[in-house]
Sequence to fold (357 residues):
Amino acid sequence: MKTKMKVGIAGTGGIGFANAAWLAHAGHAVSVWSPGGLGAEGLRKAPLRASGVLETEVSVQVADSAQALVKGADVLLLAVPVNGHRAVMDRLLPHLRDGQTVIVSSMSSLSALYLAEGAKALGRDITVASFGTTVLTARRSAPDAVRIMTRRAELGVSALPQARTEAMVALCRELFGEGFSAQDNALASALTNINPAAHGPLALFNWTRIERAENWPQYHYMTPQVAAVIEKLDAERLALAQAFGLTVRTIERHFAQSFSTKSEKLSEIAAELHAARGGPPGPTDTATRFLAEDVPFGLVFCAALGRVAGLPMPATDTIVATASLITGRDFAAENDLIEPLKLRDETVAGLLKRVDL
Fold:
């Protein structure tokens, strides 16, 4: 008999709703909190409806504050965009208590380390688990509904403190089912995320389509030359992991594990996915997360780690500069985690010591 838990979810977008539906369907008591204040209003008087790979209708509770969410939960799950991680973590931190677990889904820019060190500074003994991507892919379809497209078959889990990793793998299996395995540490989880390498070039080389709000299936437009640029970024990510003594999966392996693709080359994987799925559609808003999140919290973060390791990152630097040029934004200045984590003054050995404790 599985242990039923009280789970609090911070975030009410597609991923927050999908996790809420999945966990409530499994029998856990789920509460959700909207950091923006309005994202959960549709659930106050109606059940949460899920379609896609999970067809269900479940009841979830709505918490009115970070304090209320933390108070009623054994496990917390952070399901907000990475550019909101620090702000939401700062709201949760004062209320966390000894023994709680926080799952960061998905983690980038070592936001899990920011939370773990913040809790330690307050004298709280918590565990922070991290995924390099999300368990589920989903889109909100209504104020009280979500469509779940994918439940990933395999996912790595890291933990802070590192010694609790196996316990976190067991917890994730208890919550979501099989398919979880241990990762080396939180840095490995951060470097597992392939979205920045894929999304930056995909958005930039299809920018006119985004500006004109055209309907463009993104895998169809991951053409061979666009895929070649993505492969260059991915090669730098893999080299960066190696510089820190880590091994992370390739972007091709990511697609195989997430979507059961059979092709070996990235451009062929994109064609395979387009033939099988026809989508998802590419972004049609110039404020797309493909740049607003993935460049500052993915590529800028990797560039910062490259400087720590003394590793040149020319393709990464080029995409960051081009994204800044076309949007008129200074993406290098938008990452709000690099400074509090003191990465500019860090060493390889020093950072590994922090994530390996």
